[in-house]
Design goal:
The complex is a heterodimer of chains A (113) and B (113). Chain A is mostly beta strands. Chain A has no helices and eleven strands. Chain A starts with a strand and ends with a strand. Chain B starts with a strand and ends with a strand. Classes of the chains: A mainly beta (113), B mainly beta (113).
Chain lengths: 113, 113
């Protein structure tokens, strides 16, 4: 079983709609969760992170964490064509050697005109 | 400008050759990381380091080596023992702590000649 799982997509949404990206994790020791956006051929860039149950909002983005269900999500409101990218979910675990991130395989989002 | 610099952007390796990928950061981050990304897959952790002169193996360390002689630098050597080195290599850094996000360099694409 993968430690962090995402639906690979593609997830297609019309411009202006809400895109909902989901992620589940298996390790209950995971403490924080990070959402990265990766354009084709580029490196990941951080969008948001969350470590408490509930919602966290930043502009058009809302991250949601439910530790009981081991579920993390990212909502993108008013989706734009420039949001078309692969979205990576990652969970962090503090080990003796330091902080480790485990990444999902990513969900490809396509925002259509 | 603060950031993470990876070089070279593209690298070609001959059979039996060791190659070294450079990663330098001026963010004053204690922790540094190396990941490998293959097409359609998420990022997999190769090595990570929380302090100078100390580093830990990640999930796929075989065929790779690192050093951490300076806080700013964390070079990765891909040895001839790594039989399938073609991939996108990403270096990241962060402050210490489970809630600290990792920030990525622009990556190095390594191919076999």
């Amino acid at each position: 079983q993968k430690e962090v799982e995402q639906n690979s997509g593609p997830l297609s949404v019309p411009e202006g709609a809400i895109a909902s990206l989901n992620c589940t994790y298996s390790d209950r020791g995971s403490q924080s969760f990070f959402w990265y956006r990766q354009y084709s051929g580029k490196s990941p860039e951080l969008i948001m992170f969350i470590y408490s149950n509930g919602d966290k909002e930043d502009g058009r983005f809302t991250a949601q964490l439910n530790k009981a269900s081991q579920y993390v999500s990212l909502l993108i409101r008013d989706s734009q064509p420039s949001d078309s990218a692969t979205y990576l979910c990652a969970g962090s675990i503090l080990t003796g050697g330091g902080n480790k991130l485990t990444f999902g395989t990513g969900t490809q989002l396509k925002v259509e005109l | 400008d603060g950031g993470i610099t990876q070089s070279p952007k593209y690298l070609f390796r001959k059979e039996g050759q060791n190659v070294t990928l450079s990663c330098e950061q001026n963010l004053n981050h204690d922790a540094m990381y190396w990941y490998r990304q293959d097409p359609g897959q998420g990022l997999r952790l190769i090595y990570y380091s929380q302090i100078v002169n100390d580093f830990q193996k990640g999930d796929i360390a075989e065929g790779y080596s690192v050093s951490r002689e300076k806080k700013e630098s964390f070079p990765l050597t891909v040895t001839s023992a790594q039989k399938n080195p073609t991939a996108f290599y990403l270096c990241a850094s962060s402050r210490q702590g489970a809630n600290q996000p990792q920030h990525f360099g622009d990556g190095t694409r390594l191919s076999i000649l």
